[in-house]
């Protein structure tokens, strides 16, 4: 991911193909955790290794990062075993000349890294970003929008493993293992995703925050509904009525069709088109969902590399929201949702749209936005799910 700009989930899927379930789970935690915590780990490696991380050979850099993560976060693993395995990784990479260096640095990390990380301050956004491994701008944004105490709690929560929740497919009722969620009727908390149930279209992996966005559309039978940014299809398959699901990229549109077929969502038609240049016949909808591309700051626990790729784009988000509103009839509804926690991409976009908000907070008070209660905002540190901003807007 760091050397070739690969996406962590895709790279891991192929790298871990030969592992059994237990080993895959441990490997996933180490790999994802290392990517998430890399800024803090690199700070410790440089402080104790006395050499800039960027100047190390890539296999040495990777081995030290992986070892450092285990020493800090997986305290149940024996430190000596972590040191030995990290050294062996370098040896297996054919870098015998770097073995002694790796061994020396790993021993120092085993003795002192945990204390070094614990001693880091988080009094300012910049200090907190280093301690909890975020870009400065993310910490500064959360400090501004939530205040220091909430921002720190959010930073800690996004470094933890996310909840594992599936949505039961109402089109294919079945007896399923798991704990029903008290707030969301289709949500099921599970220990693992049942591969057979997934293949049969009985469930869909989808966080409670994401499910809430689909429910907020409030679509009904007999209505025409537009889903403007539909792939991979989780929310589109929640919608009732005659649904048109739009996806710009052909490969993702093909995946979207396959997912909807698997879920039995025969009421959804997929259109491969740019949401900003829709065919003229796509008009007069009763409702629309704009699940816009965003900086993904609400799903950093599940997407380990997202914090290092994140780029807000409120201009695009506003353009997509306005494009959807133009295709909705007078008096129709547009739901705007983004999986981020950033006022510039959230309420800032809605306020600029000129659309009239409905009071979603009155319907879902447990998820109401702390500063703007007419909107919804799920927060990982409060609600233990992904972070989603949701607004339901009416076209005049």
Features:
eight-stranded mixed sheet, globular, single chain, 2 domains, four-stranded antiparallel sheet, 12 strands, Rossmann fold, alpha/beta, 17 helices, 44% helix, N-utilizing Substance Protein B Homolog, Chain A, 396 residues
Tell me about this structure:
- This protein is of the alpha/beta class and 396 residues long.
- The protein has two domains: 8-120, NusB-like (N-utilizing Substance Protein B Homolog, Chain A, Orthogonal Bundle); 207-394, 3-Layer(aba) Sandwich (Rossmann fold), CATH 3.40.50.150.
- Helices cover 44% and strands 14% of the residues.
- The protein contains 17 helices and twelve strands.
- It has helices at residues 8-15, 21-36, 38-49, 58-73, 79-92, 99-119, 125-132, 136-146, 148-157, 195-199, 208-216, 250-262, 306-309, 314-326, 347-353, 360-363, 380-383; strands at 165-168, 179-180, 187-189, 203-205, 224-227, 242-247, 268-272, 285-291, 328-338, 356-357, 376-378, 388-394.
- The strands form two sheets. Strands 5, 6, 7, 8, 9, 10, 11 and 12 form an eight-stranded mixed sheet that branches. A four-stranded antiparallel sheet has the order 2-3-1-4, with no helix packed on it.
- α7 (125-132) packs across α8 (136-146).
- The longest helix has 21 residues, at 99-119.
- It is globular.
- The N and C termini lie far apart (46 Å).
- The model has no long low-confidence stretch (mean pLDDT 96).
């Amino acid at each position: 991911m760091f050397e070739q700009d690969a996406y962590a989930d895709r790279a891991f899927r192929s790298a871990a193909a030969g592992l059994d379930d237990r080993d895959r789970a441990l490997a996933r935690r180490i790999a994802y955790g290392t990517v998430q915590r890399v800024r803090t780990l690199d700070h410790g490696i440089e402080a104790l290794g006395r050499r800039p991380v960027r100047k190390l050979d890539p296999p040495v850099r990777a081995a030290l990062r992986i070892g450092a993560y285990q020493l800090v976060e997986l305290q149940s693993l024996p430190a000596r075993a972590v040191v030995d395995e990290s050294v062996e990784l370098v040896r297996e990479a054919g870098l015998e000349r770097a073995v002694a260096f790796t061994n020396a640095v790993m021993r120092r990390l085993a003795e002192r890294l945990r204390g070094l990380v614990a001693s880091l301050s988080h009094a300012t956004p910049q200090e907190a970003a280093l301690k909890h491994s975020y870009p400065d701008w993310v910490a500064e944004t959360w400090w501004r929008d939530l205040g220091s105490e909430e921002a720190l709690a959010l930073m800690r929560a996004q470094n933890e493993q996310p909840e594992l929740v599936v949505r039961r497919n109402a089109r294919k009722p079945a007896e399923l293992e798991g704990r029903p969620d008290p707030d969301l009727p289709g949500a099921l908390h599970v220990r693992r995703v049942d591969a057979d149930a997934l293949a049969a279209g009985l469930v869909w992996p989808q966080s409670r925050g994401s499910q809430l966005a689909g429910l907020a559309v409030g679509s009904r039978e007999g209505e025409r509904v537009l889903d403007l940014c539909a792939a991979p299809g989780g929310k589109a398959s929640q919608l009732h009525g005659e649904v048109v699901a739009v996806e710009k990229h052909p490969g993702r549109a093909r995946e979207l069709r396959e997912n909807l077929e698997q879920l039995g969502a025969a009421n959804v038609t997929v259109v491969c088109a740019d949401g900003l240049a829709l065919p003229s016949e796509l008009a007069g909808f009763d409702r629309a969902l704009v699940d816009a591309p965003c900086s993904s700051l609400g799903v950093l626990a599940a997407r380990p590399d997202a914090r290092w790729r994140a780029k807000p784009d409120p201009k695009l988000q506003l353009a997509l929201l306005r494009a959807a509103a133009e295709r909705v009839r007078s008096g129709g509804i547009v739901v705007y949702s983004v999986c981020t926690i950033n006022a510039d991409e959230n309420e800032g976009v809605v306020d600029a749209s000129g659309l009239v908000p409905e009071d979603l907070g009155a319907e879902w008070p447990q998820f109401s936005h702390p500063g703007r209660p007419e909107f919804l905002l799920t927060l990982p540190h409060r609600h233990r799910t992904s972070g989603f901003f949701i607004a339901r807007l009416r076209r005049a």
